[in-house]
Amino acid sequence: MPLTLADLEKAEGPASELVLAEELEETGQKRDFLLEVMRERLKVMREAIARGIKSDEPSVAGMVGWNAKTLWEAEDPLKAPLLKRVQAYAMAVNEENARMGRIVAAPTAGSAGTVPGALFGVADHLGVPDEKLVMPLVLAGGIAKIISRQVFIAGATGGCQAEIGSSAAMAAAAVTELLGGSAEASVHAAALALQNTLGLVCDPVGGYVEVPCVMRNGFFSVHAVSAAQQALAGIRSFIPPDEVVLALAKIGRLLPPELKETGRGGLACTPTARRVVKELQGKEPECGDSAS
Ligand code: SF4
User: Fold this and answer.
1) 216 CB under 6 A from ligand 1?
2) Residue located nearest, by CA, to atom 4 of ligand 1
3) Distance in angstroms (rounded) separating the CA atoms of residues 65 and 54
4) Please, are residues 95 and 52 in contact by the beta-carbon 8 Å criterion?
5) Is 90 a pocket residue for ligand 1 (Cβ < 6 Å)?
């Protein structure tokens, strides 16, 4: 039987070990090989952060490209370095994506910033070496795999809750394990993160993965860290984690097409978005009546 979140929750050791065991069985690969793949993924994430945080080169459609650098270099009146670091890292990766740079889909390109933002942001804040992120990243992958068995992870199918919601769940579980949380805490961190993205629509302006996607990754990387903090404190999801995933899948089916990556509703049909899209594409978006 494929792993469920309930299985992961009951693991005696780290939940990532159960995920890795399933992966080894399914792929027939050696443990060292798979861990090396994860190290390579981490390296790509690290490089995307490093590039993105220094760049102000505009994205393909020109709506983003400078936000991570702006935040990173700004004064911090809140005196909240973790908050700033996590957001800036996440946005750096997504701005790299919007410039067609190299990123790791986690689980998608549009939501690629949340996991590295939260994971590297917390690790760098605490001085944790990159090697310690390997198994948390394995767990992150396992969470996405379990969610994807219930709902196709794409804004076009489930709305942004399926993309950013999944990435926040992945990041929350990974950060919880990184900080020594139990398997139960890690899975509940994922469930807490996921349930608080339910209903989030996919409404990218012009269909470009730029607005609201880049800043959304920044926001939801912080959301993931909050979920980890709650779970590490002992808070648990009232709704069992697998049921949260089912709720996500059902909501995804209920969302109208206008709010599922078509660029025909929500932010994508605001007056400013219509004007910008007309400038970029020569005609206004075909906004659905039910969502405009
Ligand atoms: S709004 Fe749509 S395209 Fe943008 S991150 Fe969310 S799911 Fe992806």
Assistant:
1) yes
2) 213
3) 10
4) yes
5) no
Average pLDDT over residues 209-215: 98
pLDDT (tens digit per residue) in 85-139: 999 999 999 999 999 999 999 999 999 999 999 999 999 999 999 999 999 999 9
Please report, for the domain that includes residue 169, its CATH number.
1.10.4100
In a domain, 285, yes or no: no
- Per DSSP, the three-state class of 10 is coil
What angle (nearest 5°) sits at the alpha carbon of residue 6, between those of residues 16 and 25? 45
Give tens-digit pLDDT for 22-74: 999 999 999 999 999 999 999 999 999 999 999 999 999 999 999 999 999 99
Probe ligand 1: pick from 64, 108, 203, 213, max atoms within 8 Å of CB? 213
The answer to whether position 124 is within a domain reads yes
Rounded to the nearest angstrom, the distance between the alpha carbon of 286 and the centre of ligand 1 is: 18
How does DSSP assign 179-209, residue by residue?
TT--HHHHHHHHHHHHHTTTT--B--GGG-S
User: How many separate domains does the chain show?
Assistant: 1
pTM above 0.90, yes or no: yes
Residues linked to residue 274 through DSSP beta bridges, in sequence order:
none
Query: For ligand 1, atom 2, which residue shows the shortest CA distance?
Result: 202
Is residue 99 classed as helix, strand or coil in its secondary structure?
coil
The answer to whether residue 278 sits within a structural domain is no
Task: Domain of residue 243: give its range.
Answer: 5-263
What is the reported pLDDT for 152? 85
How far is residue 167 from each of residues 125, 142, 191, 220, measured CA to CA in Å? 20, 11, 12, 8
Does the residue 110 lie in any domain? yes
Q: Give the atom of ligand 1 at the shortest distance from the alpha carbon of 201.
A: 1
Pick the more confident residue, 291 or 160: 160
CA of 203 to the centre of ligand 1 (A): 7
Q: What are phi and psi of 261, to 5 degrees?
A: 65, 20
Average pLDDT of the residues in 184-192:
98
